[in-house]
Amino acid sequence: MKLKYVGKRILIIIPTFIGITILAYFLSSMSPGDPIDMIVGPSQLSAEDIARLRHSYGLDQPVIIQYFHWFARMLQGNFGISYRTAEPVLGMILSRIGPTLLITITSVVVSVLLAIPMGVGAAVKPYSLWDYISSGISFLAAAAPNFFVGLLLVYIFGVSLKILPVSGMYTTASSKSFGDLVRHMILPVAVLAFQQIGNLIRQVRGSMLEVLQEDYIRTAREKGLKEGRIVIRHGLRNALIPVVTTIGMNLPFIVGGAVVTEQIFGWPGIGTLMVQSIHARDYPCIMGITVFIAIVVLIGNLITDLVYGLLDPRISYK
Amino acid sequence: MRKRTRFLAALLAGVMVLGMAACGGGGDDDKSSGDTQAAAGETKGQAAEANTDNAGGSESSGAEKIATIAITNAWASWCPYFDSGNYTDIVSDQLYDRLWITHKDGTVSPRLAESYEVSDDHTYMTIHLNKEAKFSDGEPVTADDVIYSARLDCNPAFNSVKRDQMKFVKGTNEGGAWEKEEDLGWEKIDDYTVKLSFKEAMSELNFLNMMNRYFYVIPEHVYSKYSPEELNEATPWKDNMVGSGPFIYDTSIDGERIEMVKNENYFLGTPDIDRLVIRVVEGSQLLSVLMAGEVDLIAGGGIAAMPLSDWPAAQEEANLETVAVTNYAYQAMIINCTSEKIPNAECRFALNMAVNRQAIVDNLLGGEGSVVYAPFSNEHPFVDESKLNMPVYDPEAAKKMLEDNGFDFNNTLELIVPTGNEIRIQSTVLIQQDLEAIGVKTNITQYDFATLMQMMRDGEYDLGMCGSAGGIDPTEPLGWLGLGTNQNFPCIMDYSYTELFAATNSVLDQDKRVEAFVEVWQHLLDDSPVCYLYSENHRVAYNKDRLSGVNFDEAEQLNWCTWTWTVNE
Fold first, then answer.
1. Is B257 in CB contact (< 8 Å) with chain A?
2. ipTM above 0.90, yes or no
3. What predicted TM-score, i.e. pTM, was given to this entire model?
């Protein structure tokens, strides 16, 4: 049954994906700004040279033809050549996916690992000191923009204390090591995790408070089960369903947040590539990144749905 | 339950491992020479392998003399001819050689070209190459390589965006592409001598000041195996990084850094820096990374412009050397010559006169810049303000001139400004106030640069803010003024400026050429298609405990001469 459900979802994903590519291609092509302007810059090339460049990039074709050419190539795994760098787009994106996934996924893990105990603690003992601290952190995280948090952390840990690197992935190629990578990851991951943690704490706290009022929790208590077991086995598991939804729904925002964070910390991820590509009107690259983000979000949502079933056996896939 | 937990854990771990693997974390595979690790975004240079091994690789990294330079945008291309931006050029200049070192006064000194002679009639020059120069693979740099580089640059099938300066070479069209390859005015005399013929007699310094900025010599034996069409993609360049510059490509992370090791056999002297790292750092973070010791140098200007608000803090740091370097870059307000709201040259001149440039320099640049009326500051060898009738700030005279010349004060002028440069955006507000003071209404709108460029070229604006890197070449301003050029922002509708600038090329005597430009600038000021505003000093800061021998005062055309820098022990 589950396989059938997955198959159905994939069938829905396909037209959604095609719709996204059509929208993205036509919107970016319609936006003002000519990629040839950005390639040529101040050079005083002849009109003939500029026309040749335009032809070599296929920009002299109607947009609809350009789209079909792009789509046909994309189905074969060829995302075209970047206008800005003349490199194959697929290679450029593959080189940036790893760093982005690394900090985004680590930040999700960190935020979940921190938010769950804080949210559960706050729900188990509402209006306690723990609850106030958790709620305070939650409001602060929701209110503080990540560029501000990023600059603050840079100042504290990089400039004042000088204990953490503030930019890049490694110190130098010769000093490259796992430890060096982890040290460089700490601040960007902290910023991204902080961005997510506010919402998660509130979600965990709210869900737990609700679940802890349920009849089956009262029954469990009356049966004499230990409070810890009740909270974790019976309460938390059910409370996690809306939390998983939140994480799933947040995926696009996490990727979006990574754009700013990558810029601040000079992290060579997909976010910085996207900003550079948009500025340069590098349509093949913009489309490649759009496809990547669309796939991440669509698959992320599918995984979220599947995880529901793992968390709550009452949920069936039809 | 246990099964599900295992599934979740496995899913999470899988994704994490994928991310780590894709980042090359902990990997020691950078010994795999020449491999492009697509998933990691890292490329290890073949040519640098020998040098790295000599240096002992990571084992002896502690002994390496490393210098790290910050840039605020990633280099766009591995080919020195695909991009005309500073970020690519500063990388190319380390890996490849140019023929000369250009100085701020327009003179040149030898680099790959040891010397040159000019024919009596100034129709050709003979260039003698340094016989000691070698590529990083050990092959000598010869006349064949220079000719090959020039022919490739001028080849219409090759997507070079730097060939326009070749338009003065015999056998090229107005954009610098050759018409027939065999007619191109670059000829080999012998292995180390090249003859370069012009279309017509011209000052050789004039040509060198234009061409040398963009002409990099690449090895024929490496790239001639590819067709020009194949070389239109970055892959052959990325896979064969062989140059004769002071540094040799070692490794890179796309969009984050490029690392080079010194060329032990560099013919102008072995660099003292063992490893030169060029890293991309966000503009607002420049001072932080410098203070944190993660970079050693911020070059200012079009490479890494430190926010002006950070400049006092940088000056107060004991271990930092801060230098405000004057230069030929400029900011301007372009006036749409086809706008019906600004009916004639007199009205444009009046608007030009209404702008208080000194207030911009004093209030926004904190004095770290200078007022300009002509395209360049008075420091430029081709500008002599004492001989020019300049539109000095006079709001009353400006208002009267507008009234006398049919300007309709009921119109609101659309003033557009690109996002990004904060000082330029703030200067737009000051200009709006200046214009308001004489009764001219403006509406400011910000656009991203690509949109702004298209709007200006299409004439969909009245006043538009823009900047240029300028340079020692006095014909550089023609880029905005020539009918048919890609950046004809004022929408000039005739060839008057093209002809005016072209006439200066035939003046062979340097002093007379300077005089000829007085006429050009005066015409430009009277016609006022562009209101030149200010030149901002490059705010250079470097860690003086780490670096010595850094001299940016003469660094025109990105001639940093990094092989002369030393890293303090």
1. yes
2. no
3. 0.85
